[in-house]
Amino acid sequence: MTLSELLKQHGQEQLLDFTGLTAQERIAYLAQLSEIDWDTVELWKHPEDLSGKGKISPIAGLRLSEIEARRAEFERVGVEAIRAGKVAAVLLAGGQGTRLGSDAPKGTYDIGVTRPLYIFELLIRNLLDVAAQCGAYVPLFIMTSEKNDAATQAFFKQHAFFGYPEAFVVFFKQQMAACVDFEGKILLEDRGRLALSPNGNGGWYASLKHARADEKFPKIAWYNVFAVDNVLQRMADPVFVGATIASGKKCGAKVVCKARPEEKVGVLCLEDGLPTVIEYYELTREMAEMRDEKGDLSFLYGVILNYLFEAKRLEEIASARIPVHVVKKKIPYYQNGAMISPARENGYKFETLILDMVKLAGSCLPFEVAREREFAPVKNKTGVDSVETARALLLQNGVIL
Ligand code: UTP
Asked: Can you list the domains of the chain with their CATH numbers?
């Protein structure tokens, strides 16, 4: 089938416009067109039904007191795994950080006050602490996107990787998905360029494998995956790694105890006996307020996007289809020679979410961390989970800003 037949078959003839493109632009555009994932694009018509239908029940986790009591044991197991090269860190940095309102990669944000202190720098420092404790470097995979890869790599080079050995850092790009309008027509972001967006953080493993980023480190048995925007993040934390390994579970999740029943945080629980994360708005009020015999909230564990996945399990589930979320967004687009910035949502983006991998993993250990020591998300410019709140938490933890 020719490309034009293919586009016609999918009702996307509007894309067959090559006017004004140079030979090089035309080649690049044709490459984009040939890479469209039609299964995903067609989802706008029948979004997958992602509302949980199973029976939701609380999940048992490791609380701070138990972790403290068994700290030495967990730490020993974790340190041993790290020394043996079995643990890798995966930094998810492919997001667009739209809420922060900057085009630059989120990790390049300078959160310092009296001196420069970048988010990437803070994360690397934490990883350097682990390397010093274990006497071994942890391979660090950094997932970027088409949009921020060059800027991210240049930033790390410019700052000499903040002292982390370059040989232990591998960048890989996450795959992209085409954006469509409410009629399912694929949008252009410019003449001869499709409007593409990163396909969500659930695509990290497929993208890592696609890029063959792991080939240099064949011993990896565990991947610790975490978000770029928690500036108190502790990755490859030996105690967490050791506790997950000792539990025999396929996955571990760092969690914080919810402060209030109505707190807006995704909650780790069980659905028909399998671990799952449900969004705060999916919890009924009754469930949110339910308490166990000790008086704690039954649905207690809020996720902070720091997971440890067993590599073998990831291999096993690699071919399983991860749900694709169809999300309404404001998507700037190009039409009839003009760039249009819509005032309100005008189309759909397609995203996979890492929390859906927890369910696929099959079993999960919730591992409690002290929120004031390990959770300082930078999502917004001001207000809740903002630069201001993160700075206050960093100061509280003795970081000089
Ligand atoms: P968020 O869900 O906060 O998304 O990402 P975001 O794109 O960074 O920010 P907003 O919503 O546009 O303001 C959580 C983590 O997942 C990564 C982000 O970089 C962040 O570490 N992520 C998100 C990806 O790596 N790829 C994606 O496609 C989306």
From this structure: 1-34 (no CATH), 57-396 (3.90.550.10)
> Does any ligand 1 atom lie closer than 6 A to the CB of residue 105?
no
Q: Which amino acid is at 279?
A: E
Separation of alpha carbons 401 and 398, rounded Å: 9
Among 91, 62, 64, 94, CA closest to 230: 91
Residue nearest to ligand 1 atom 10, measured at CA: 97
Does residue 196 have its Cβ closer than 6 Å to ligand 1?
no
Give me the DSSP letters along 147-170. Answer: TTHHHHHHHHHHTGGGGS-GGGEE
Mean pLDDT, 10 residues at a time, the chain of 401 residues:
90 92 93 90 77 84 97 98 98 85 89 94 96 97 94 98 97 94 96 92 92 95 96 95 98 96 93 91 89 93 97 90 89 93 95 91 97 93 91 93 89
